[in-house]
Amino acid sequence: MEKIVDTHEEIESEVIQGLTSPQKYIPSKYFYDRTGSLLFQQIMGLPEYYLSRAEAEIFQNHGENLVSLFGNAFDIVELGAGDGSKTGILIEWMLKANKDFNYIPVDIANDAVDQLTSQFMEQFPGLKVDGLTGDYFKMLDKLNALGNKRKVLFFLGSNLGNFSMKNSLDFLQNINAKLVKGDLLLLGLDLKKHPDIILKAYDDREGVTKNFNLNLLDRMNREFGADFKRQYFIHYPFYNSVNGTVCSSLVSDRQQTVNFKLWGNSIHFQAWEAIHTEISQKYDKHAIQYLADKSGFRILQDFHDSNQYFVNTLWIKK
Ligand code: AVJ
What we know:
- It is built from ten helices and 14 strands.
- The chain is of the alpha/beta class.
- The strands form three sheets. Strands 1, 2, 3, 4, 5, 6, 7, 13 and 14 form a nine-stranded mixed sheet that branches. It has a three-stranded antiparallel sheet with strand order 8-9-12.
- Helix 2 packs antiparallel against helix 9 (about 210-225) and helix 3 (about 50-70) runs parallel beside helix 4 (about 85-95).
- It starts with a strand and ends with a strand.
- The structure holds N,N,N-trimethyl-histidine.
- N,N,N-trimethyl-histidine binds near residues 43, 159, 161 and 202.
């Protein structure tokens, strides 16, 4: 398995740039250290977090149909594979249909890739798994080296939603440029629905999502010698029904200064100043069509769960 790790300089400049900008932020990829990955797995099992169940339902009910559109021989590359719990359902369908394929999971969380690789090799004897750890963008450059079978890229779980619409478009165009005509992209996207349902998915009763969000600060303390006090920050997500964006933040409940021992920076917070930690975009048909059109893909087919909460949309490079 190959790893491309961000350098200390890259991490320092990303984190400090975020925390010294006029609107403070921490890039959401920093959620996924070991603790964060475990917390996200817990989130996927929460009653409020409908996304994972909806996608699993789609794969159970429509997986056979969906994988029949892949052809007979191809390589699956999954960006942001995580624990692969839903992908396993599609792999079962592909094995049942005797498809000839390799599976290449890519994730920022090293532990997740290691675990997924050993789990899938055990669960699916004969399946060829070859994982990669690192930032999506760096990993895309590896795609060329894969050989000339058709590529089927998976980007599931509404992971695209962590990008702004503009960055999503850039990213999809980037992906498109790395593919050849006829290659496929399977996206999992969360759809607009009643705002209360959406907000609750990011503000669960048990407070797991709150811990997931606050773990960012703990991680800064653990890895970069910061002295964030998590009790002085409030987990505050909200859903903007106008643009379809859930915006998650940590709000400083007082004036305070946080020091990063490792780098020697002091970050000052005014009372009620926020750190923006994540966006989770919700889509509709028009937005999805727009993204496909502008990034050089054609929509082959859409698959929905019974509630129409979520879509898996299969695109082909034009
Ligand atoms: C993994 C990015 C799809 O935005 O819904 C879950 C992460 N954040 N709860 C999402 C997340 C808070 C999740 N994604």
